Amino acid sequence: MTRPLSVGLAGLGTVGAGVLALLRQNAQVVAARAGRPIAVTAVAARDRARDRGIALAGLRWFDDAAALAADPAVDVVVEVIGGADGIARATVEAAIAAGKPVVTANKALLAVHGAELAAAAERAGVPLAFEAAVAGGIPVIKALREGLAGNRISRVAGILNGTCNYILTVMRERGREFAEVLAEAQKLGYAESDPSFDVDGIDAAHKLAILAALAFGRPVAFAAVHVEGIRHVSALDIAFAGELGYRIKLLGIARQHAAGIEARVHPCMVAHTSPLARVDGVFNAVVAEGDFAGRIMLEGRGAGAGPTASAVVADLVDLARGRLTPVWGAQSGMLSDAPSLPMSAHAGCYYLRLMVVDRPGVIADVTAVLRDAGISLESMLQRGRSPGEAVPVVLVTHETREDAMQAALARIGALDAVLEPPAVIRIEPA
Amino acid sequence: MTRPLSVGLAGLGTVGAGVLALLRQNAQVVAARAGRPIAVTAVAARDRARDRGIALAGLRWFDDAAALAADPAVDVVVEVIGGADGIARATVEAAIAAGKPVVTANKALLAVHGAELAAAAERAGVPLAFEAAVAGGIPVIKALREGLAGNRISRVAGILNGTCNYILTVMRERGREFAEVLAEAQKLGYAESDPSFDVDGIDAAHKLAILAALAFGRPVAFAAVHVEGIRHVSALDIAFAGELGYRIKLLGIARQHAAGIEARVHPCMVAHTSPLARVDGVFNAVVAEGDFAGRIMLEGRGAGAGPTASAVVADLVDLARGRLTPVWGAQSGMLSDAPSLPMSAHAGCYYLRLMVVDRPGVIADVTAVLRDAGISLESMLQRGRSPGEAVPVVLVTHETREDAMQAALARIGALDAVLEPPAVIRIEPA
């Protein structure tokens, strides 16, 4: 057994404390699997006085994480500070500049600056590992980049944000509205006090951008991801989804088309029998489709101190064993230059729910707009009658293009008898 | 880019042909991910004349796979012959002796001789990779051994045999008996003409032995796996399972207890809401529970040319990249020496179904036997009455030990009013 791998831990929040706890509690198991002990020897955080419920005695303390990253006694830098810029980015850049391997759990950093960071790491010959950036304890980075290495992957899709999945699950189970369930989730600690990163889909989009880069072997392209969150999902639409045999999930979906790569995060209707439909609560799941492996699905806890620490340590064990993989699965010269496709080119089926005045001719007006846009209907549903009042009308279309649908929606929304902006949820094949 | 990795392919059945096809069809993707081209340059099979639907021109032909394994122009040997002994074993031993890395899809070989082969490979400093040996295209070896490397794994369980899962699924969906569905599966090519390896649980036990070794970091111990197949599962018990909220699945389950390791393959009742209950048809799934990652589940196609080739090539890419892992996850000196526990020490709940004469006092006799054995009942179910005739009675117990249950079953089976040997299916917590 060689000398311990000396880890400098930048960030001592929930995840940092989890990494410390894991490396202590499972030191023997980790040493056996890594072929040498792995130990945190230095930590960096802002507030030295704060009680984190974990002993820090014997660890060298740095107020400045970038200084820790450059310290000669540190073999590997673990960055669990978070955030696309600021000290997290400076720390990772300092580590790469110092020629030190980096393990990070930072999806925002990778999604936004991953292309440059990967290029810098490659130039410096420094490994940059990030299993913990997507889907917590589920080894999905490893599965895509190594486990499916023999496959052309045509599609990767997943439930990538536990907060949204929890909220949508509770909305469905209890028939309640978004705002109410969000407030409760905040009280329970399942949602942040500023929830917008989660509920507006940004966190899921960060993760999807990373998965798409790995699946299709190209540099990460966060700006090309179409992002919608779950604020506009209503209890009414969840109930109609159930009636139609669907569940509403916030999915991240990336597909390889002949013309390029489509990547989008938005609420989807998925058949209630599909594997992703059954993943409820705070769980995450990722489905990948390979031309030889077929469809595989991985499911588990996508967040929290334990799962995230598990992923960080898996990366540390890989480093200790010398198991290296280029950041996006292949050296920069071998990456795909497939273009990103705009959302307007997306094709799929759509669920529309309109609030209309219940009077003769309204449905005819709406369906005329759809006909004029070349959109054909699969089904129409109007439950209940209350002449002269507002009633919901549900329409499900056959496959059509996003741009045609958006044009039709503008015209439908402008009809006199249509009382609210139409609710639109895309239907995703299982 | 360095020179191609030269693969010697021992075995040209379905899987061998799949590997050839993949390495040709996805040559570019594989080269990018491996950092160098990977190409089959030599093949070994018995019958040179047989049409395998794939071009063999340009490949060096060996009638003797062991000679191929020793050939100096071969960098890596892929063994896809199958079988625990004979030519498959000789080929792998020859490759290790010649200092060549081995990739094998052979679960029987690994389960039965894996401890010696791993020791030989370690002595020779030769990698021995076997992602394809368990669960086909699902990267479960990698997930357990690398992805969860930071965890103490307490339990690994899975649906490991697609043939059995297909048969049980069709029995449930159509209310049909085992023998009928087996015959049909044989016609459709989902079951072998000699189905015993599959339906008697041996194939699943081979795979479970491998998973248990990886999960708990110890040499493989196939002989210690308790094995029962699905021949005795009846349509009647499947129907009762449904009524009680369960599904019947053939599971392989390994658990780490304080006293040692329990490993068993047998039909189980699992709650219909549990993730494994929903994995139907030919699909495989593996659940692993880590102390930090929590429960993760991986699901996909567990057999067939494409998925198995995908796993073989993932191992080849790892070799090409120099990503190495000790066979059982740690060097031999670091492996656990936890003992295997006998099935008699298993503790769990049981489903019993008796065919009894419908007359007063029978249930009292049966429950008296259970009481005397210290077994308490959770529920009892007797549907229908036909005085003096045979009727089924279903009993579900609270947790008890296997040895107590077996002793009670012997006494129950000997009662006059009990007309057939009791049907027993263990209940597995979700």
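The radius of gyration of chain A is 24 Å.
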